């Protein structure tokens, strides 16, 4: 069997689009890295499905991660993995007539997005919903499988399968290169600065429970908490009367030990402002943010079941358990920070693009895919 030429879709909105506004483009890059390590893969390109031209303004190395338009890729790829940009019916038909396979790679919370679009009037499809029913396979990363896999399978009339989650520290390394101590956690004496960095755009990752964990910690150890910082929360803290009323029930807020901030760059905010990160998820039990925090050696207090061996894990929605883990980090983290960082990195290696088991799994998925009849 000849080695496969792979295309992975992205959807650019402008020529110099950042890699940090969401994880989708990073996901495409990491998948390309992993697939290039597969013995049955000849090449892996990023394929832009929008009209935005490809230029050197893009914030990634175009020699390392070649990026082309769909028009430039459509006659050469053997497998197109639709990840960050959707192809239409005519483009699908063109690929199928060429004998190419088309895979849907699902890494978003589409069921939740659909619910929000229906219930709260958030536009999802711009009124032009296209559901492609000609995928040759559906690949779903583990953290979205529970909530969205059945949703995908019914609409797309194709069974799905879980595939390994992939992450790389390549972009993080570039971002922290100019930071003191490469942005890694540094121990120090005195009260701790607590940070909550949830996106606060839906129920999946919201700051309320982390703020309550910080509150319980503050009630028990008020002299050991310097500040609670909640990013991505400035608007709701100014304009949402329900959020304001809830926050004003907390001692840490009433005693002016909490601030509600806008959006911040994660690596810099960790290095400049943070001692302990508190997180909470609901149907998002693994994501890049957790890995970035732990890779850099910061104590992460979290309830993410798919990476419970990382950081300081608390159960479910148990904010009392979460506060106990914050206190544990206050009491013990500095003494073992170097060991902690190295252990986190050793554990995270299971997600890296060169992990042998991960590469073998993707290689087997591709072998099985090309043996299937084209839909």
From TrEMBL:
Species: Paraburkholderia ribeironis
Top-level lineage group: Bacteria
Protein name: DUF2827 domain-containing protein
InterPro entries the record matches: DUF2827
Pfam families, sorted: DUF2827
């Amino acid at each position: 069997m000849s080695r496969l030429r792979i295309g992975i879709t992205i959807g650019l909105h402008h020529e110099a689009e950042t890699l940090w506004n969401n994880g989708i483009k990073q996901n495409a890059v990491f998948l390309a890295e992993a697939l290039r390590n597969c013995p049955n893969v000849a090449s892996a390109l990023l394929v832009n499905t929008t009209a935005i031209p490809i230029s050197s303004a893009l914030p990634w190395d175009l020699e390392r991660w070649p990026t082309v338009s769909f028009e430039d890729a459509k006659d050469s790829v053997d497998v197109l993995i639709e990840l960050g940009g959707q192809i239409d019916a005519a483009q699908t038909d063109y690929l199928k007539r060429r004998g190419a396979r088309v895979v849907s790679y699902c890494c978003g919370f589409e069921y939740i997005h659909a619910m929000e679009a229906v219930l709260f009037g958030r536009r999802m499809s711009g009124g032009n919903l296209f559901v492609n029913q000609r995928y040759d396979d559906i690949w779903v990363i583990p953290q979205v499988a529970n909530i969205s896999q059945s949703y995908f399978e019914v609409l797309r009339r194709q069974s799905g399968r879980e595939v390994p989650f992939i992450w790389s520290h390549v972009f993080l390394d570039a971002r922290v290169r100019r930071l003191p101590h490469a942005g890694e956690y540094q121990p120090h004496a005195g009260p701790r600065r607590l940070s909550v960095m949830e996106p606060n755009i839906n129920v999946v990752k919201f700051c309320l429970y982390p703020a309550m964990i910080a509150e319980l910690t503050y009630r028990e150890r008020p002299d050991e908490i310097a500040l609670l910082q909640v990013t991505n929360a400035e608007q709701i803290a100014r304009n949402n009367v329900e959020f304001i009323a809830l926050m004003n029930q907390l001692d840490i807020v009433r005693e002016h030990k909490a601030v509600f901030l806008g959006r911040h760059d994660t690596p810099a905010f960790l290095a400049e402002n943070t001692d302990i990160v508190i997180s909470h998820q609901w149907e998002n039990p693994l994501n890049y943010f957790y890995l970035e925090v732990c890779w850099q050696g910061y104590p992460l207090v979290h309830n993410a079941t798919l990476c419970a061996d990382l950081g300081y894990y608390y159960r479910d929605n148990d904010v009392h358990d979460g506060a106990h883990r914050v206190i544990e980090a206050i009491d013990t983290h500095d003494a073992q920070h170097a060991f902690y960082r190295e252990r986190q990195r050793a554990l995270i290696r299971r997600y890296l693009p060169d992990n042998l088991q991960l590469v073998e799994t993707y290689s087997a998925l591709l072998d099985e895919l090309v043996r299937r009849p084209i839909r």
